[in-house]
Design goal:
Blueprint (H helix, E strand, L loop, with lengths): L2 H39 L5 H30 L4 H25 L6 H5 L11 H69 L1 H21 L5 E2 H16 L8 E4 L8 E2 L5 H10 L9 E8 L2 E9 L7 H21 L5 E6 L3 E9 L7
Parallel strand pairs: 2-4
Antiparallel strand pairs: 1-3, 4-5, 5-7, 6-7
Helix pairs in contact: 1-2, 2-3, 2-5, 3-5, 5-6, 5-9, 6-7
Length: 364
Amino acid sequence: MNKSDGFLKTQPEHRHNLLVIFLHLFVWLSLVAFFWTATQKDPFFSNTWFIRMTLTLSLFAVLFYFNSLFMVPRYLITRRGWIYLLFVAGAFGIVVAGTTWIDSFFPEIEKVRVFREGMAKPPQKPPLAIFHFFNFIMVLGVSTSITLLRTWYRNEQSRLDAERQRLSGELLALRNQIHPHFFFNTLNNIYSLVDIDPSRAKIAVLEMSKLMRYLLYESEGNLVPLEKEVGFLKHYLHLMQLRLTPDFPLEIQFPEKTSGGFISPMMFIPIVENVFKYGVSYTNPGPILISLKEELGLVTLITENAVLPKKESEEDEKREKIGIANVKRRLELLYPNRHILDISSNETRFRVMLSFPVETHGKT
């Protein structure tokens, strides 16, 4: 990763922090503006009342941020609740003492409007401590809730990022598992042609170079154009046809044109490889069908081949199982609950049907 990449990745977080700061300033300044507007438009409120409310608001703002930035992260989240409870009790005492001092320093003037409305005396107000208690609980509750939600969100994002990194690593390992297996089989096919038909062996080497170019340079992302994956399969099938006689019953059905969508690379090749590895017999050639179609936002591969007596070694059988297991695992990771892999057989035919969605974008 270069420096510019690292810089670009920090921009959204920096902008988010600025947005949060502006949002907090807007809320506090809106409250001050509300108090000021009340003093200017309603004679019931005095300038002294505005000063008292602004100072009280400042006291609660200090409580809000001290609780949010220090006490909750250090004591409540770390399960040292008894220290946090001591803080709550002490903070309540400080708030009551502070608001009482503010009220005594800026005494409220007599409300003449009360007497104009025919009341003999001003209505009895509840004890000041009760009023500040509810304000204290509200400020502390909002501060704690916001901090806990923000902490939960960050932890959840960290967990999701770690999970994405783990899955990305697993997908990369699965794809790397395909490559040596694929090249091993392809080199074996070319080797068998060298003595039989050197000219076709040269063509096979050229086709293999095209396959290697795709694997090394064009299939590195999580998604590749479906058209390129189809082209890769065509080159591979051309390579396999060089081994077969002209009259071998091989039927290939590919779409003339794709939609321009994207899929995960190397999803089809393990299945197609198995068709030629386990479905080709020169003594009893059974028909082979390889069909690929795209419709209704899905790409579907269907392969059919004859069931032949198994002659492969235990190592070959193990490689076959690894190839199918590889496809199954990649489908679970990339297309969970959005794919179909149906493998069926009878005494004479073996059939595989694989279907999954085509993505409309190529972001990795």
